[in-house]
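FIELD: query
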Amino acid sequence: MALMCIGFVFLLIISSATACDRCVHKSKVAYFNKDSALSSGACGYGSLAPGFNGGHLAAGVPSLYHDGAACGACFQIRCKNPNLCYKSGTRVVVTDLNHNNKTDFVLSSKAFTAMANNGKGQDILKLGVVDVEYKRVPCEYKNQNLAVRVEESSKKPDYLAVKILYQGGQTEIVGADVAQVGAANWKFMTRDYGAVWSTSRVPKGELQFRFVVTSGYDGKWIWAQHVLPADWKTGMIYDTGVQINDINIAQEGCSKSECGGDGSW
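FIELD: result
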C-alpha cells in the first residue's frame, strides 16, 4: 500500500448501530492439538509466538484477521458454560488466520484450557468446541516498546523486510514508511503478509520509521526515530523507543445486544 500523503481522514457513518466501547460477540471456539500450528501461522511470528501472552494464542477468521492488520491483536474470550468455565475467561493474542468458518477462533490448548475452572481443563478439552462470548481488548506489554525484527530475507542495500512486534493498545498498523534519519524522503513499505512489511527502496544510513495506526474510528501517524543502525543485521530485533497505546477508546458500531453483552463485562 503506497502512502503518498502525510495525513489521513477517517470517515464513519453509523446508521442502525450504536457506538459502543467494545462489542461483545457470540460464537464458538475450538483448539489446536499442537500449538506449533500457531507458531507457524499466517502472521509470520514463527518461534517468537509461544512467548507472547504466556502462549495464550489464537487464529482468527478473516473478518477478525483484517488481512493481517489484526496480527498481535488481543481478545478476551470466555465460554458460556458456567459449570465448566471461569466467568472472566482468558485473553488471547492473534497469531494466525483461521480458515474454519464454523468457529471465530481456534485457540492454543493453553488458552482453551485457561477458560476452564480449576480441575476442569481435561473436561473442556474433551468437548473440543465450546460456545463463547468475546470482545476486542487492548494489548499490554509492560516495560516493552514497539519493536521491529529484520527478517532473514532482507538483503542490504536492495531489500528490507521487518516484522513488527509488541504493538500495544487496541490498535492496528495499516501503513508504514522508512527513511534515513534526518531526511524527509520517505519510502513506503508494503505488507507482505501478517506482521511483515518490506520495501525494495532501502534508504542508506541509520533508519527511522513512521506508522499509520488506527484505533476504533481514529488514526494517526506514529514516528519512531533512530530505530535501525546503519549496519543493521538480519535476525536482530530493534527497539523503536515508542509505545503504541490506544489513541482513544476504540469504539465499534454495535447492535444494542452486543454493546456490553450481559452487562458483566
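FIELD: remark
The chain has four helices and 16 strands.
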